[in-house]
Amino acid sequence: MVGDQLEVSAEAQGKNKNHISMCLTAFCCRPERSSSPSNLKSSPNPIEITEASANPQPGGSSFHANGSQELEDSLPSGSEQQKVRMSPGQSSNIVSNHDFSNGLESWHSNCCQSYVASENSNFVNGVKPLSGSNYAVVMQRSENWQGLEQDITDKVIAGVKYIVTVFVSVHGDFHGASGVQATLRIENLDSSVSYVFIERILVSQDCWRKLEGSFLLTSNPRRVVFYLEGPNPGIDLLIDSVAIACEKVGMTSSPNIVSNHDFLNGLESWHPNCCQAYVTSGNSNFLNGVKPLSGDNYAVVMRRSENWQGLEQDITDKVAAGLKYNVTVFVAVHGDLHGTTGVQATLKLENDSSLSYVFIERIVVSQDCWKKLEGSFSLTSKPRRVVFYLEGPDPGIDILIDSVAIVCEEVITYRVSSNDEDISNNDEHIVHNPQFEDGLNNWSGRGCKITLCSSLCNGKILPVKGKFFVAATERSHKWNGIEQEITGRFVRKRTYEVTALVQIFGHTNNADVQLTLWVQSPNGREQYVGIAKKSTSDYIFPKNKHCLKRTQASDKEWVQLQGKFLLNGVASRAILFIEGPNPGIDILVDSIVVRRPIKAGSSVPPITEVDSEDANVIRNVSLTDGLNQWNPLGSCKLSICTHPQSFSPVEYSLSFYQPQNKRYILTTNRTETWMGPSQIITNRIKLHITYQVVAWVRLGSGASGPQNVNIALNIDNQWVNGGQVEANNDRWYKIRGSFRVEKKPSKVVVHAQGPPSGVDLMMSEAQILPVNRKTRYKILKEKADKIRKQDIVLKFIGFHEDLSGASLKIHQIENSFPIGACISRSNIENEEFVDFFLKNFNWAVFGNELKWYHTEPQRGHFNYKDADELLDFCQKHGKQTRGHCVFWEVEDAVQPWLRSLSNIELMKAVQNRLKGLLTRYRGMFKHYDVNNEMLHGSFFQDRLGKDIRAYMFREAHHLDPSAVLYVNDYNVEDGCDPKSTPERLIDQILDLQKSGAPVGGIGIQCHISHPVGEIICDALDKLAVLGLPIWLTELDVSAVNEHVRADDLEVVLREAFAHPAIEGVMLWSFWELFTCRDHSHLVNAEGDINEAGKRFLALKNEWLSNADGKIDASGEFKFRGYHGTYSVEISTKFKSISRSFKVEKGDSPLVVIINS
């Protein structure tokens, strides 16, 4: 992204072909562009000045593009044998003046100068043109991004792939090679600017090189500019010719794959499906006078006793997987019919052991009236048999079929001209009639009525995008709304972005509105995919109806809903709908658009190094300078006090401490909870640095019972939690927390707050310290080496030859430390997801499939199928599994039917749940989270008494004694939640154990932001006192910048791997769109591994041991390695010997016998 763009420009052209032709252009410089693939820069639209100039002066410095490779087709200048003519492909070149035969006409220099060199004007350093008689020279470049550009806005179309071919060279004072890059600058309708990397090559001095690449636009922006950039400042860029051509010449039509499509040959190739059919013509008298629509005949399907009976044709040999087919059928119906009936086009897919159906399209047809049915389909794999058929009307109703066409959309139809209309392609037209310009066509009410409106409430509500909006009225359920079937219009494993403008109308101030996709798989499995949800508000006339808020609406205006979806499996049907508000509230919809999102550029790594001189951000910490730098927040009063003798640390156990400094700030006269001591730290905060917050607090007079005390940061009026504790007035409490600032703030204030008005607050030794993670990592590596590695002695026994002196290589195949991930039933339909999971994780946990609300959504209606299939998948691939979860203590996670039960019925339901789940899966799950989040909820305890929690553990152990039973909660590790501290969790576990609960392990969820290793370690140290194994059960870190996310993930993983009490880590999913927090994924939705994923893989690789050497005289080899599975390869004079072995935890050194 760049800043505001300068929108002033002037044309400059040089057209003299017979004389020295130069067009020098000078522009204002532009701001840096962080999203450029090569860290180049971009410019605003320029102010262009045309003038004459002398020949360019050579000069510059060398440039090396990391990772680039020299191409084999370098062309020395002036080599007649290697002159090449531009071959733009089958379609026309859209670049104007592509070979500079008209000087610089249509071209513009980007903040530099340029001219066209020809034989008359002396070629640069004797470099001759490659394909014509001229070439452009771009000179006086002071930045990498400066070059030559051309506006191609009117020549490109969304959805069409363009091939780019450019012949370039460089000239200047440098050695080696320099990079040249082709780029698109996209100026969007919302005035934002983005960049599309096309290709980059390395070019040697005065040698022509061929740059080839391609691009495809997913939408039509306001402006598209193609430009060439790249060499270091001072190096001239030489351009021989430029071609941008469509990949293929468009076809206006493809062959119809349906045999005898118009029944000219009777019923040849067609077969009635459990009914009868014939072909009628003028000679045989048309049925009831209904004449054919397009030819001389039509088919009549009769004596139908079931809806699914109709006419079919086998098209197995005429379709291929991965292609889209468009279906067009003209149909009518005849019979004893009042009103209308439905006709549907369907595919039947037959495999060796299964049968499935693909819905194509369904339309409503009136008696004896021809109607056009249109739809499409694509196959993700080729089944054994594919049958197309028409079905649908009620039994006894005849189907009339005039003609059938199924056409492969192999090549996109397009025209290249400045007056082209929008092209109808799959991505841009997933939703038909998106702005209701065609009334209610393609739309229907989902259990309610929909009405087309041009305004409401005396003109206070008006459409935004077009002339109409739709109101969904007479809603009796939350799921009622507006819907459209989009079956066959999207491709599995591809990401789609949905954008809708919505509003509510009725007697309410706000309500939740949600975009949902209902999907049915070929085997009948249903899935609801939540795409986007927003709390919206009632109506009001906005000041500017075209000014849309992209954040949560404050009150009474159109709200934008935006989200993404990706389907892992095949969908036989898919319906997109809007739902959410309570019954009686109308939903207003202005527009709904589904398209492929623009691919975001890679994140730029921020500067996160901590200087050795970086110190405490807080000034006057010791208070030796009185209250200097400190200010009261609000009308409270601050004073400096010293500790009385009664605060001596000898009065407390070793678990408690107090500040070393005797001075503290006393805050009195507090009339609001937010009042306390504050300090402005704006200019002392660095972006992207993680800061640790430490402070001592204590309550003064006026406190009755424990109170929350918080160190807060006000960052441009946004509240940030810097750490929180629940305190009494009996002693000092230490607050530890963290924060990070991602954008340059105008003001940052830190302050203490929390207790109710009237309660005095004391604070001492407040510190905000930048975290030096690299220093911490050195310590963690040493700790991990001690607890995760072992001294190993390999003893080679029974070999026929003496192995002493033989060389060997040891390679660790897998570290046995458990690292798992969350998976869901739909994920295992995605081949790329499965591949990444199987390669990189050895444990699994199910996202929702084992939870009570999933296995018994309605009382007595059970669904174990999803969990069964996931468990089968894990067992097949040798992955251990955690059972999450038997119960969930938070009331919002309890299904409504369960909440409505009496206490007696509820207890019976709890018993049935335990028996049903634990006996069904006895011995299959290694762990169970018995009652999830007991620090944050108390539904079962409130209803059934305190002992219910221990009862759940006792009964679970009785039903499956092999499973280790865990408590599981969040926010225990980061100091941000006074409800969820290590001390509280310890008390809970001890209380359960006193009641006979066999608690076998501690689950720390670890949904964490800006983690600090020392804080995590401190929490783990406290919990480790219980002697129970600890697992991080739901780890994720969230950061928009992938490099920052990678850093955060590394912090947590290193702390876990280096702590002796941690016995395993589970990532709470890793695939985009299937995580519980945004910006926490390691792999992008379509399978690209991002920076966080690369860091994860690098750590896993670091935690593998390899060794090589020679076997000693006693037939042994010694090394130190991580626990896990190894292979060893021994090389003797005569042969190579391979063996594998395992290193388990045990005494050190571990002796491993390698037999012959």
From TrEMBL:
Residues 52-69, 88-97 have a biased composition (Polar residues). InterPro entries: CenC_carb-bd (IPR003305), Galactose-bd-like_sf (IPR008979), GH (IPR017853), GH10 (IPR044846), GH10_dom (IPR001000). Residues 804-1099 form the GH10 domain. Keywords: Carbohydrate metabolism, Hydrolase, Polysaccharide degradation, Repeat, Xylan degradation. Signal peptide: none annotated. Residues 34-46 have a biased composition (Low complexity). GO terms for biological process: xylan catabolic process. SMART domains: Glyco_10. Residues 34-97 are annotated as: Disordered. GO terms for molecular function: endo-1,4-beta-xylanase activity. Transmembrane segments: none annotated. Pfam families: CBM_4_9, Glyco_hydro_10. Belongs to the glycosyl hydrolase 10 (cellulase F) family. This is GH10 domain-containing protein. The lineage of its organism: Eukaryota, Viridiplantae, Streptophyta, Embryophyta, Tracheophyta.
